[in-house]
Amino acid sequence: MLIEESHKDVPTKADGNGSMRTYVKPTRRNNKLNQFTKGIFLFHPKIPNYPHAKFPGVVVFSEIYQVTGPVSRYARQIAGHGYIVAAPSSYHEFTGPEPLAYDGPGTDEGNEYKVRKKVAAYDEDASLSVSLLLDLPTCNGRIGATGMCLGGHLAFRCAFDKRVAAAVCYFATDIHSHSLGEGKSDDSLERAGDIKGEIIMIHGKADGHVPPEGRDLIRKTLHEKGVCFGFYEIAGAQHAFIRDELSKGRYDPHISKICFEMLLELFDRTLRSDLGRREGGEVEVEDVC
Questions:
Q1: Is the pLDDT of residue 276 over 70?
Q2: Residue 113 parent element (H or E)
């Protein structure tokens, strides 16, 4: 399927408390930045001769390096299967939409921004991205979310939005440690019960960012909160195993393909079909051979 790429600038409150900043040619009045806009990259499927075709929407959240080459390729891959993808620039309060480098200084910069930004601002980014997709005349009104690393955590939080029917979270960091955002004191696990759609959590068993006890805590909490979820731990897989560039030897294309098929199964089932609202709890299964 063909893909058209564009971007949208969306007005927003920079850090969740009403202050205004900008990353595009900032103007200064009384030494303060104003006119804040947020960049959202759009990847839109296109079928020749069908200009009114409607597609589900998916928000793709990036790792700490913003929308890099690997993240863009991941977004295009999803769009190529018939989904309108919106990929927000996570650090628009502090820098431009350009990706950070996959090196020491880029990693340090990304980690610094990750804990300088307020959790409320992350949530606002997610809400605006969902709204942008739903406002498109070519969107069918069904929304999913996905992301990796920081983006896996943001996709998890995006699923708190009742407009989001499904989410796929790759090696989501900081959920188990409650350490996202300013103050390193997020409430993601406490709010897990707000997830009304279906989610998939994917972790590598060799991922030092989310240790075994952290993965156990996430899985246990999702059970206790009654979330509809799948939880996959992949033997030998390390952090960032789906990053196809500068992954420091961790990229595994075969495992990445299998995980992407799980994403497509979930999104095709929940976003393409009109299933109505999910109701009830776990279905009782008869214990037979």
A1: no
A2: helix 104-116
